[in-house]
From TrEMBL:
GO terms for molecular function: ATP hydrolysis activity. This is ORC1/DEAH AAA+ ATPase domain-containing protein. Residues 45-169 form the ORC1/DEAH AAA+ ATPase domain. InterPro entries: AAA_22, ExeA_AAA_ATPase_DNA-bind, P-loop_NTPase. It comes from Clostridium oryzae.
Amino acid sequence: MNNINSSLCQHFKLNCVPFLERSKTSFEYKQFNDNLELLSSAFMTRQIVCITGASGTGKSSLIFYAVNQLEPSQFRIAGIELSNPNKKALYKTLAIKVGLKPAYNADDIKLQLINFFDEENAQGKFNTVIIDEAHTLSISLFDELRSFYDEGLNFSLVFSGLPPLKNQLNLAVNQPLKQRIFVFLDCCALSLSETKEYILSQLNVVGAKVPVFDEQCFPFLHSVTSGVPRRINQLCYGGLLAALKRRETIVSEYILRNVHENLNYQV
């Protein structure tokens, strides 16, 4: 832990710094719990799943917590994050992820993967391919992945991306793929009450014994972050740093307003 974060912990009497990393246990609320249950079941039923949501609304966290529930000896998860990949790059990356030495041609790698998943299934192991940044896929690659899934029917396929992913799947040319998707999950922003509960949960995880944020902070935080968890994390952490600099023991709305003016959100 670096000096500034050590100082934060000492100043606010915390075990570690909140809002920077995912905790071992998720923040539970209705939408998240519903999505987690549906995604978890898809891992063992060889379905196609589509997860969409604006940047920072928790798509990666949803996948992270769902995967962490799985028994490694029974499940293999291969996650791919390639922006606008071509066919060979996608299959080659996937082959390397599962421990294969990829062939030269894309179609040969595809066959390697299908055979590999067959062997894994014969041993009672479930495989899932997760395609992140799926909104960057080309129409031809969407159809290629449909073909890949159809030829094997021996793995689950998860698409995760920004809201335009839904628009792409609604195109007539992508209907053959969309008709194979049984689970559509939306990751939405938090409500005002959920925003407050989320912040308090983050503080509770790191051992906060007394209030760290003034009560008036919560409506302001929700208003300027639109309830997006990543933005909440950024602003809350900035508020802690600003309060430390001012030697304040509680973060006020005034401090957060000053931080917000200089914070450029990653949208």
